[in-house]
Amino acid sequence: LAGCGDKDAAGGSDDGKLVMGFSQVGAESGWRTANTNDIKAAAPAAGIELKFSDAQGKQENQISAIRGFITQKVDVIAFSPVVTSGWDAVLKEAKDADIPVILTDRAVDSQDTSLYKTFLGSDFVKEGKEAGDWLVKDSAGKTGPINVVELQGTTGAAPAIDRQKGFAEAIAANPNIKIVKSQTGDFKRADGKTVMEQFLQSTPKIDVLYAHNDDMGLGAIEAIEAAGKVPGKDIKIITVDAVKDGMTALAAGKINYIVECSPLLGTQLMELAKKVHAGESVEQRILTQETTFTQEQAKAALPDRKY
Ligand code: GZL
């Protein structure tokens, strides 16, 4: 709408605040909830007006939300793409409308990197490698096959593609370690439980579960216990994220190792939005800082965990 008073040409808010349109993947996991809460808190703290949209895990909802932000002439668009492909057209529309786009959390496979100003998020291949490296170390000196079942994240999502890649590359160091079953649990606890039930029924010997996030690992633990097995002992479990529920299970010995993936991108995102809006140049790729946790480290870290 044509503004009045000190509204800037790009259609910012009436009181001159920078307006950000954010399209979120959904609410599929504890990580996503923490990510959403952090973004919603960081916007007002940075004096930014946030228009927030939850896509319930559907790419078409993200695309229509982005189109809505373009129509509303927001100053900056940010989003976490649920899957890597299928974004070029709508990103071109944002570019043609002269609205800068910031990617957070997940990547897109667009070859044209002029379609977004920067990508702020984790290195998921590294996360998968950390998980695989731990298993290789833990398996040192053991003889005989080590059968791994893998609960993959959302099909086509950057973290699922890359966590699978990094893990597979790392475990190649020990040919005894084999992924005998791999299936998506869509980053959801309920799906992780259902798929693990199927793994348990169809796979005689499971030594390790590698789950691409804590939530699927926690669902799998329910299935493992229902099958009369001890998680963390009969079946070792490695997950990614390090949200509170995962860290609690790790400290209790039901998970053996967690690779952290930080959801706290909000403050960095808001600072980037201000720079991009001001026409300042920003790094094309900004990596988040994160670590890994053993059971002992989880016990020490739990009291201070913010999410
Ligand atoms: C990773 C993020 C993933 C988390 C899951 O940055 O995209 O999506 O690992 C979440 O828990 O659902």
UniProtKB/TrEMBL annotation:
Pfam families: Peripla_BP_4 (PF13407). It is found in: Cell envelope. CDD domains: PBP1_galactofuranose_YtfQ-like. Residues 22-280 form the Periplasmic binding protein domain. Gene3D superfamilies: 3.40.50.2300. It comes from the Bacteria. The keyword rRNA-binding does not apply. GO terms for molecular function: carbohydrate binding. SUPFAM superfamilies: Periplasmic binding protein-like I. Keywords: Signal. PANTHER family: D-ALLOSE-BINDING PERIPLASMIC PROTEIN-RELATED, GALACTOFURANOSE-BINDING PROTEIN YTFQ. Belongs to the bacterial solute-binding protein 2 family. This is LacI family transcriptional regulator.
